[in-house]
């Protein structure tokens, strides 16, 4: 059960059913063959992609929005980033903190919405990550706005989510959840998937500049995941930058 005493649930950008769903699965975050196996499988790809886009992570401040049990957060910290992970599922954060003790990887975790954390930590991060989370909240645009607020001028932001179309329903829900059991049943709601043009619109409305978009794909023959910009039909990443402040000084 989450302690939401510091949050107004009527205002917080959270879905109680989503929180409950992930709370029930929290104990399995670090089982590489459990319910979150697919996240473990794609994590090296995600980390390498973020590191490449950021031109290295060593010494950079980074926030992982919707960090869950810390799979991505720890891997990014191992690359030398100074990582903060935030989530609204207290049970997941408990697992993340316990694993931190076991692994010795230095990550700071906090129970917070992205919006609340941004209010108190605006402009603090070189890199802002929000992966596989936007499709689980009532207002993804609000998360994008908060992410933009958290980034330093010139900072890098990386989002990933799922496209909304018949192909994504077939592969991400019918196949992945029910046919092959790659993710827990009920993990996703197709109505909450986000088309790339919708996400780009949210990003541009937050005064961010898109720099890259690529798809995450699965080869059923080799059982391997890979990145390709040939299409973004199902899972996809969008990379953007927060513009630098205009520091020009007018001559008298």
From TrEMBL:
GO terms for molecular function: 2-polyprenyl-6-hydroxyphenol methylase activity; 3-demethylubiquinol 3-O-methyltransferase activity. Keywords: Methyltransferase, S-adenosyl-L-methionine, Transferase, Ubiquinone biosynthesis. The keyword Glycosyltransferase does not apply. InterPro entries: SAM-dependent_MTases_sf, UbiG_MeTrfase. Pathway: Cofactor biosynthesis; ubiquinone biosynthesis. It catalyses: a 3-demethylubiquinol + S-adenosyl-L-methionine = a ubiquinol + S-adenosyl-L-homocysteine + H(+); a 3-(all-trans-polyprenyl)benzene-1,2-diol + S-adenosyl-L-methionine = a 2-methoxy-6-(all-trans-polyprenyl)phenol + S-adenosyl-L-homocysteine + H(+). S-adenosyl-L-methionine binds at residues 46, 66, 87, 131. The keyword Transmembrane helix does not apply. It is an enzyme of class 2 (transferase). It comes from the Bacteria. GO terms for biological process: methylation. Its EC number is 2.1.1.222, 2.1.1.64. Belongs to the methyltransferase superfamily. UbiG/COQ3 family. NCBIfam families: UbiG (TIGR01983). O-methyltransferase that catalyzes the 2 O-methylation steps in the ubiquinone biosynthetic pathway. This is Ubiquinone biosynthesis O-methyltransferase. It comes from Agaribacter flavus. The gene is ubiG.
């Amino acid at each position: 059960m989450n302690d939401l005493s510091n949050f107004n649930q009527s205002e917080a950008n959270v879905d109680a059913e989503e929180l409950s769903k992930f709370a029930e699965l929290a104990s399995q975050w670090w089982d590489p063959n459990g319910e979150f196996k697919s996240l473990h499988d794609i994590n090296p790809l995600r980390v390498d992609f973020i590191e490449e886009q950021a031109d290295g992570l060593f010494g950079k401040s980074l926030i992982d929005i919707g960090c869950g049990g810390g799979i991505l957060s720890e891997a990014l910290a191992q690359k030398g980033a100074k990582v903060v992970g935030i989530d609204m599922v207290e049970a997941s954060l408990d697992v993340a903190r316990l694993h931190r003790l076991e692994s010795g990887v230095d990550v700071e975790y906090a129970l917070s919405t992205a919006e609340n954390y941004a209010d108190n930590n605006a402009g603090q991060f070189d890199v802002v990550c929000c992966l596989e989370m936007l499709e689980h909240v009532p207002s993804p645009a609000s998360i994008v706005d908060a992410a933009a607020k958290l980034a330093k001028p010139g900072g890098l932001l990386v989002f990933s989510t799922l496209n909304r179309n018949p192909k994504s329903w077939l592969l991400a829900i019918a196949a992945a959840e029910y046919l092959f059991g790659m993710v827990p049943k009920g993990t996703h709601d197709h109505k909450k998937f986000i088309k790339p043009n919708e996400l780009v619109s949210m990003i541009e409305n937050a005064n961010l500049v898109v720099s890259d978009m690529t798809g995450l794909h699965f080869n059923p023959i080799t059982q391997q995941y890979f990145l390709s910009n040939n299409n973004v039909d199902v899972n996809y990443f969008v990379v953007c930058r927060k513009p630098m402040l205009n520091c020009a000084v007018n001559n008298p």
